[in-house]
């Protein structure tokens, strides 16, 4: 037994001895140790690199398969979105006709006919291949060029009613042809209905999923024939897939090239969505990573050396930057100190300028107030004699018979007209500034406003040889018709006045919810630096001598005030020598409709006759003029110089002792001596008589506070000077109303009620 164990024990000891001897030699020799270490590291590195490369190879192929599958599924969903509308239309129409024959095509409903008309790519073929309806069809496959093969090709059992796809042309346009057979009543084949899906409709989808080098995408039949897309015309017999199934072939060869092929079959059509990625393209990044891996060590050493150099350079740059930053901070502090000093100086200068501006604004406000007081006083003081002159002139004209005397009186009337125009313009400005005018907003047809303007200014334009034209418009706007008409009238009057030749045009431009009403002229134009000044009071261009025939310089000032009152924007553009255009923007509420005209009754004529009128006026000249005028119209007149005298006429009415006069109305001045104004006198007389007495207030006071006080009652208000016709119309209108019929809304009069020219 001992002889048998000895060889084994000696062999193991010998092996351990040889191993220990080798290790001692390697440890004793650094070169050998380095050789062993480098060899071991090389072997370990090679093995590790091989394992990593193999795993990377498998991961690359798996990723490409997932990408091909996902791309095929996504491509299928987009392609179905393009084809579904055609499939639905084909199934709906073919389903109705199948079993009834192609003759039932004419029985389609209106909705179906409209759908076919809208689709516009449908052909009905008979069993012999002739086209019964729609454009001509050409199939890409030679054996189906005449369509007969598509009709007679045998189909698997249960798929006689399935849709058959094919590639071809309809009406000369490349298309995917979707065909479904139509059977007659006996079940025999009677023809086929084809719907064409233009390849152009699929182009955006194909472009999104395919490119010539990286990936190919297309629609194929199960036999591998291409229906749409670029690349191979045939993929060969494709794997059989059920509706909606998907599959990936890792090594599918076509056109001599291996590719990763993703397939997805449509649920309603025997059409496969295919996305192919060449394996060379898939593995190209893997080869690139291998090449880069081999260069990693060299690049690493170079990178370490470069990083060391960059570190030294970075330290040097950091030191230089720190020094530059210190200097910059010092300069910045100096600049901040200088800036603070400049800000303080500018702030002091700005404060001084603001103080001067504030003082200038105060001076301007005081000047405006002084101007308003001057205009108010001048208006009041001038209206009294103008009123008397107007009334006496009217009475004189009625009594003169000699032509020479009447001619002189007419000249006097023209002079009165010129003075009254100035007073009326000042009154209108003062009334607008007083804030007592309340716009009566309503839905107004633009055509009515334009007709009024053309009717009013046609004669004025013809006198100057100008063409006045209004472009038709059928819009309805929200505005105060009277105020807007007067605004546009001022613009048209100015356009005619300052245009020597050519035309004046009124037009409208509809812009969203606004309508621009524009007045164009071919006059001399306005310099650009004067476009803002022309809206100021009493500003006239080219009239230094203040010729009254060229206006007073208040037209555009009134336009600006009325526009602000209505909330309408006013714009102006002008080219010197070519003309100007003024525009007013008004809100649009709709389109004009025809309306029935309403005939208004003339109340003045209905109320003409003998009435008792109380005249309260402290100026004897004015009082006599009004009395004579009223008596010339057939009225009876009683007079009083002030409110107390007027009340004294009715002193007995309270106790019932006497029979006081019973006036039908009162005509009174606003300013009266004594305790009562004209408005208060009308109220007191009504209280004394126990009933409301209508009142007509005549005043020459245009101060804003006086106007607000006057219009706060139900009395009508006329500003002096008043023409006899205006006075007669106002009296007739008042007498036509019931004595107790004063409106509670009299406090908000429009410019029409105040008789402002």
In words, what does this structure look like?
This protein is α+β, with helices and mostly antiparallel strands and 757 residues long. Among the domains are: 59-281, PAS domain (Beta-Lactamase); 438-590, Histidine kinase-like ATPase, C-terminal domain (Heat Shock Protein 90, 2-Layer Sandwich), CATH 3.30.565; 612-650 and 661-736, Response regulator (Rossmann fold, 3-Layer(aba) Sandwich). The protein is 50% helix and 19% strand. The chain is built from 17 helices and 23 strands. The chain has helices at residues 2-28, 30-97, 110-119, 148-152, 199-209, 279-294, 296-399, 403-434, 446-463, 481-497, 555-566, 603-606, 620-632, 643-648, 678-689, 704-711, 724-735, and strands at 122-126, 131-133, 137-139, 164-170, 173-183, 189-198, 216-220, 226-229, 246-254, 257-265, 272-278, 442-445, 467-470, 475-479, 503-511, 514-521, 569-575, 579-591, 612-616, 636-640, 665-669, 695-699, 716-719. Strands 12, 13, 14, 15, 16, 17 and 18 form a seven-stranded mixed β-sheet that branches. Strand 22 (695-699), helix 16 and strand 23 (716-719) form a beta-alpha-beta unit. Helix 7 runs antiparallel to helix 8 (403-434) and helix 10 runs antiparallel to helix 11 (555-566). The protein is elongated. The chain starts with a helix and ends in a 22-residue tail after the last helix. The model is unreliable at 1-8, 543-549, 596-608 and 738-757 (pLDDT under 50). One of its GO terms (molecular function) is phosphorelay sensor kinase activity. Its EC number is 2.7.13.3. Residues 738-757 are annotated as: Disordered.
